[in-house]
Design a protein that fits this description.
The chain is α+β, with helices and mostly antiparallel strands and 135 residues long. It has 6 helices and 4 strands. Helix content is 41%, strand content 13%.
């Protein structure tokens, strides 16, 4: 299977919770991770011509699969499809116009710190999970 990487906000409790959820539901380790704040995350952003502020004010995860970049709701739906099973059914929402999907995504993303909190430093995976993370 092809390479898939999810770039996420490493200080966001919602984002790190989502990463932990994905890890649990991806036992074959098909998706790898890097925080946007990490050197690996910044390198991947540069390779794809993307810029993200490191203060958490940007409101998207970035999913890279087969060299294609997905953001906002499209990123979430492509991750769901990659996970397959019942979660993969969520990909059916791709038929909803992107501006509607992204509006809902942005409401949650812009309020994520207020609703779910944030860490002072990036979340670090356990040694057992370290291989799933780019450094």
């Amino acid at each position: 299977m092809t390479e898939a990487i999810l770039l996420f906000d490493g200080i966001c409790n919602l984002c790190t919770g989502a990463v932990q959820f994905i890890i649990t539901h991806d036992p074959e380790a098909r998706i790898r991770f890097a925080s946007l704040q990490s050197a690996a995350g910044q390198t991947l952003l540069a390779q794809h011509g993307l810029v993200q502020r490191l203060d958490g004010s940007d409101d998207t995860v970035i999913y890279i699969e087969d060299g294609r970049v997905y953001t906002h709701s499209s990123a979430a739906l492509h991750v769901a499809r990659r996970l397959g099973g019942a979660l993969g059914l969520a990909y059916g929402l791709i038929v909803v116009p992107r501006f509607i999907r992204d509006f809902a995504y942005r409401v949650i993303a812009r309020n994520r710190y207020r609703w779910f909190g944030k860490k002072q430093v990036c979340w670090l995976p356990t040694p057992a999970l370290q291989a799933r993370f780019l450094s």
